[in-house]
Design goal:
Distance between the termini: 73 Å
Low-confidence stretches: 1-7, 242-285
Number of helices: 7
Helix content: 40-55%
Order of helices and strands: EEHEEHEHHHHH
Radius of gyration: 34 Å
Oligomer: single chain
Mean pLDDT: 76
Length: 285
C-alpha cells in the first residue's frame, strides 16, 4: 500500500424512510463497531418532533455487517426516545442477537421508589456529630500515644517482658514462611489485572503495554497493599491462636479482652495445658 494513501475507517450508515404515514423506518448498514464512525440519533429525533403522526418505529438491517455493544447503546437511546414520544418500538427487523440483548437490558426496569431518599440533617446536628467524632478520635489517639510511651519507657528501663526466641519466631512467620502465600496471591492478582487490562487496551491496539500495566501496578500499588493485608491479617490471627498466652505472673488476669492494652509486651510461651492454678491461659486477643 502506498504511504500517501489515506487510511480508511469503517463506517456505519443510518437512513430514515417513511414506509407508511404513521411508521418511521430506520435502515442500518455498514459496520456498527467501536472503531467505526457512527451517526447520532439527532436525525431520528428531528423526524419524530416534526411528524407528530408517527406511531411506530421499525428497522431494516439486511445490509448490516459487524456490530458490537455500540449498536445496543444506540438502540437503547432510540427506545428511550420512543417512550418519550409514545411511539411503538418495533424490533422485529433487528438481528436475533440484538433482540436478545435488548430484551435482557430492558427486562427489569429501574424502580423509582427504590431509590434512597436523602434525609436532610440540620446544621446543628451535623456540628454536634462532628464534635463528638473529633472528641472520640482525639481520645483514642491520646490513649494510644500514652500506651506507646509507657511501653517504650519500660523498654528503655529494661523491664520489657520479651523473649528473643519469640521475636525471631515472629520474624520467621512474617518473612520466609509468608513468602508462598504472598507469591500465590500476587500471581493471581497479576493474572486478573492482565486479563482486565488486555480487554481494555485491545480497543486501542495497545496490548503490548499489558506487561507494563501489570508490572507497575504490582510494584507501586497492589504489591505493598496485598503484603500489608496478608501480614496484618494472617499473622496477627496466628498470634491469637491458642499456642500463645500472656507471659506475666501466674494468676495475673489484667488483660481480659481484645484491645485492653494493645501496646503491652507479651512473651510467647507455648501453651501445653492450663496454668499452674488450673485456669485457662490468657490469649493475646
Amino acid at each position: 500500500m502506498d504511504a500517501t494513501t489515506p487510511e480508511t475507517h469503517p463506517q456505519g450508515r443510518l437512513d430514515v424512510t417513511r414506509p407508511t404515514a404513521d411508521t418511521l423506518g430506520v435502515r442500518l448498514s455498514g459496520q456498527w463497531t467501536i472503531q467505526a464512525a457512527l451517526p447520532s440519533t439527532a436525525e431520528i429525533q428531528a423526524q419524530c418532533a416534526a411528524s407528530p403522526g408517527v406511531r411506530r418505529l421499525s428497522f431494516e438491517t439486511s445490509a448490516l455487517a459487524d456490530w458490537d455493544s455500540v449498536l445496543l447503546t444506540f438502540l437503547l437511546k432510540l427506545k428511550e426516545l420512543c417512550d418519550q414520544h409514545q411511539i411503538e418500538f418495533d424490533h422485529a427487523g433487528l438481528p436475533h442477537g440484538v433482540q436478545r440483548l435488548l430484551a435482557l437490558a430492558t427486562a427489569v426496569p429501574e424502580h423509582q421508589e427504590a431509590r434512597r431518599q436523602e434525609k436532610r440533617i440540620s446544621l446543628l446536628v451535623r456540628l454536634g456529630q462532628s464534635a463528638l467524632d473529633i472528641t472520640a478520635a482525639t481520645h483514642a489517639l491520646l490513649t494510644f500515644l500514652g500506651q506507646v510511651a509507657l511501653a517504650f519507657g519500660q523498654f528503655i528501663r529494661g523491664r520489657a517482658r520479651l523473649r528473643a526466641v519469640d521475636l525471631w519466631l515472629i520474624v520467621q512467620q512474617s518473612g520466609a514462611q509468608a513468602l508462598p502465600i504472598v507469591s500465590l496471591i500476587s500471581f493471581l492478582v497479576g493474572l486478573i489485572l492482565a486479563f482486565m487490562g488486555a480487554n481494555q487496551l485491545q480497543q486501542f491496539g495497545a496490548q503490548i503495554y499489558v506487561a507494563n500495566l501489570v508490572g507497575l501496578s504490582m510494584a507501586r500499588e497492589m504489591g505493598a497493599m496485598m503484603t500489608g493485608i496478608i501480614m496484618a491479617g494472617a499473622h496477627w490471627c496466628s498470634l491469637c491462636s491458642p499456642t500463645w498466652h500472656y507471659g506475666g505472673e501466674p494468676g495475673d488476669r489484667r488483660l481480659g479482652h481484645h484491645g485492653s492494652e494493645p501496646c503491652g509486651v507479651f512473651s510467647g510461651a507455648t501453651h501445653a495445658g492450663p496454668d499452674a492454678d488450673g485456669t485457662a491461659p490468657m490469649y493475646l486477643c
